[in-house]
Every structure is written in C-alpha cells, then in structure tokens.
Amino acid sequence: MKFGGSTVGTTAALAQLASIVLTERERWDRLVLVVSALDGITDQLIEAAQFAQLSQRRGYRRIAATLRARHLALIEHLIKPAERASLLPSIDSLLYDMLDICQMMSDNPLSTRQDSLDAIIGVGERLSARIIAALLRQSGLRSVAIDTTDLIITDDVYGNATPNMALTRRNIETQIVPMLERGILPVVTGFIGATSSGNPTTLGRGGSDYTASIVGVCMKADEVWIWTDVDGMMSADPLDIPQARNIPQLSYDEAAELACFGARILHARMIGLLRERRVPVRVCNIYLPQSSGTLIRELPSAQAARHLQAVALISGIALTRNQNGSLASVSALVDEVFFATTGSHAEIVIAAQGPHTSLACYIVPTTASPNAVHELHLALADRIRDTTELADWQARTVGIVTVVGAGLERSHELGAKILLALDGLRILGAAYSPSRCGMSVIVEMRDAEIALQRLHDLIIEDSSPAQ
Ligand code: ASP
Ligand code: MG
User: Fold this and answer.
1) Most Cβ neighbours (<10 Å): which of 46, 118, 221, 462?
2) What separation in Å is there between the alpha carbon of 228 and the centre of ligand 2?
3) How far from each other are the two terminal CA atoms of the chain, in whole angstroms?
4) From the CA atom positions of the chain, what is the Rg in Å?
5) How many CB atoms lie within 10 A of CB 213?
6) Contacts of residue 347, Cβ cutoff 8 Å, sequence gap at least 6
7) Cα 467 to Cα 452: distance, rounded to the nearest angstrom
8) Distance between CA 32 and CA 37 in Å, rounded?
9) Taking CA 366 as the corner, what is the angle to CA 325 and CA 13, rounded to the nearest 5 degrees?
10) What angle do CA 124, 165, 34 make, to 5 degrees?
C-alpha cells in the first residue's frame, strides 16, 4: 500500500492512515507500506538545493528550520513520549546531513555532484517513513522504517532514475521478504533509490507510485493499493473540472494512457511494470476507505467500457517550421535538450510534414519538475538560435488534451464526436494513440481549458443512458 503526500501531511490524515493499516492488517498478513514525503516537502527541498547552488545559506537554513518545525509539530500531536525519544534524534540527524550537503554545495557550487541534489530532495521520504513507522509501532504493530537507498538499485539518471529490476528483486527477496515472514510491517521510503555504487537517486516527481509498483512486482504482491485524498481515478482533474467523477474500472492501457498524458495521480512509468505481471492496482480515498475507488486490471474486451472514460491535459512543446523542414534533423537535437533538462528522452506525440509546414509536438513528462515546460522552452529557443540545422524552426508551448476510453477502438463515431466538440478551436494536430484507447488533440495554450471542459462534457453525455 502506498500513501501519497496528501495522505501523510496532516495529523488527521495520519490518524486515518493508522486506522486503515490496522484494519487491512487483519486481512493481509504480508503488507508493505510505501510512503511519500509530507505534502509540499519535496518542493521545499528542491528550493533548498537551489539556494545551496546559489550559495544562499540563509535560504536553505530557513527551509531546514521550517521542515523541522513541521515534522516536529506532527510528532508532538501524534507520537507518545516513549517513541518520541528515539524519533527526534533520527529526524535531527537527517536534517543535519541535509544541511551538510547544502553547505558543501554552497562552498563549491561549480563542482556540485548530481547525486547531491537527489540526496537532498529524497530527505522528505526518509523523514516521513520514520514518523509513520513510529506511529504504527505505538498502535501495536511491529513496524520498521526502511530506506530504499539500500534496496532499489537504479541507473545514474539523477532526478529520473530507472531501477535495475534484477538487482532490486534480489534485495527485496533477501531484505524485505524475510521481514514479512517474521510478521514485521516495513514502511519503505517512496521516490528514492541509489546506484550500484551507492550514490543516491530519485525516480522522478510522483515517484513513490513507481516505488510501490517496483516493490509490489519484486515481492510478488497480490495487489498494489495507491491511497490518495480523492475518490480514485477521476474523469478529469477535479481541480480543473469540479464535476469530475470517479471511474470504477480501468484497463492497464487506459490507466497508462491517462498517467502519461497528464493525470498526475499515477506515475507515468508505474503501470507498465504491473501490467507485465498482471498485478491489479486499486486507487482509493483515505477518507472513504469503504468505497471501492478505481480498480486497474486486465479487462477482457467484453468487459471494457464502451464509452469514454476520462480526459487529461498536459503541456507540450511544439516545434513548427513554415517551410518543409526535415523532422529527422531536428529530433536528435531536441532529444538532447529534453534529456539535459528533464532526464527523460523526448516523447513525440505527433509529427507531420506538409509541403509548406512541419510540426513536431513533444510531451513534457509529468515526472519532470513543474518548471520543466518553461525551462525546456527556453533551452530549445537557445538551441534553435545557435544551430544552423534548426534555422526557421519555432518552439512554443501547447496544450495536449487526451480523451481515454477503450470504446475509441470500437467506434469511429466517438473519435468524430471528440473533434466536433472542439469545433471553433484551432486544432494543431490530432492523433489516435497506438494503444487505440486514447485520442490526443493539440491545441493552443489559450484554448486548453475550454477544450478540457468541452471534452469532459462530452464524456458525461456519452456515458449517460440514452433518454
Ligand atoms: N515526494 C515526491 C514528489 O513530491 C514523490 C511522491 O510524492 O510520489 O514528487
Ligand atoms: Mg502522486
């Protein structure tokens, strides 16, 4: 079971977490928890690392003091003195280590090692795992906090690492499985790992979901549960569309499509691993533990939804040229800039070449930092200016609105309805996804919200029973 930032960020949420774990422990005797940092903490840690790189000592010290105060306040409320006595020194020691790394960076900003950044931004998960393990111990469970730096072995793409599954499986089999056999409940840090030589790495923003799928697959779990504070996967992001509603069931393909095209509730790379092993995923609301949330699993085509399930919006970067221009020549250069800026290779959503215009539209992964679109845009604009092969290309940010539903595969009428719903808006490109359960439409940024709303209205209309 993975508990995300919003489910561990307050005393009320943590009390809910403890009650869920106690209930589920009755049903499952082999249970592993994967936890995120408290809400907002990773953002603050990234800011601290930025201050350190700018040698602004007061900036990162202020953040460390705020982090300490927030974690201590939670401990005050939730943890009794017996557990508190050993917990407080471990919290302080993590924060001192973090300050040491910041100090090193600040003294020598030009020789900053990339793993120092990951060491700093992974501190949030180490803090929360310790607090949650202490909370569960005082509720009578034999719970231990585990740092995944000793468990999840990754490549050295700092900020967006990928696990080596063979090495990680061996570690989980030798370290976690024996704990389960002894009745221990491990509370594992999400988001973080380390290279085989021990340098700290992170798995991309929202990476705790990915950790849950890695651990779930390696321990041969029956199910992976993602606890959040909304009713499972929704037909749209409820922050954008208040009428969004719960989706009871999704196929792996539909869920992967949504995660990749902007539904931040799941990490884009987690579904692939689980699909390979047919491990079902439940996405549940901690405040409504009895409701069924969303179940993601292999759906035989007879059971797949015949209608549209959800719509997601994500920013992308479009490169256009008002003359015929070879896309092949730009793609390698664009990929280089993407990788340097986000740690991910450029994923192309659509590429089209006509006699007078060329368009290539790339997605900016949800696992990149929230500033990534802006940073990429600037980096590409610089590259275009400095590279002769890119003369006359323009880069701009665009909205990619994706409607997902296995029904799209069966009926072209649904695809036609999507385009009709966007009537009057300028469509820069549109494509069926190769999994055939999604359709992405590229629109100007200024039209993105209206496109989202119209497509959500279509989803509601399409799924209501005919009059
Ligand atoms: N704490 C990390 C983040 O904010 C990982 C996660 O929450 O899944 O991105
Ligand atoms: Mg998340």
Assistant:
1) 118
2) 8
3) 41
4) 23
5) 28
6) 362, 363, 365
7) 25
8) 17
9) 170
10) 30
pLDDT confidence of residue 467: 45
Question: For the whole model, what pTM was predicted?
Answer: 0.93
- Nearest-atom number in ligand 1 for the CA of 124 is 1
Looking at residue 324, what is its pLDDT?
A: 67
Going from the Cα of 426 to the center of ligand 2, the distance in angstroms, rounded, reads: 32
pLDDT (tens digit per residue) in 365-406: 888 888 889 999 999 999 888 888 788 889 999 999 999 999
**Domains located in the chain, CATH noted:** 2-222 (3.40.1160.10), 310-462 (3.30.2130.10)
Minimum-distance ligand 1 atom for the alpha carbon of 207 = 8
Q: CA 459: distance to chain centroid?
A: 25
Task: Give the tokens for residue 124.
Answer: 């949030």
pLDDT 10s digits, 217-240: 999 999 999 999 998 999 999 999
Contacts of 398 (CB under 8 A, 6+ apart): 315, 316, 317, 318, 361, 428, 442, 443, 444, 445
Instruction: Provide mean pLDDT across the span 296-323.
Output: 88
CA 24 to chain centre: 25
Q: Where are the alpha helices (DSSP H) in 282-388?
A: 327-342, 372-386
Q: What are phi and psi of 165, to 5 degrees?
A: -70, -35
- Give the Å distance between the CA of 256 and the centre of ligand 2: 14
Question: What percent helix, strand, coil does the chain show, rounded to 5?
Answer: 50, 20, 30
The span from the CA of 161 to the CA of 191, in Å, is 10
DSSP 426: P
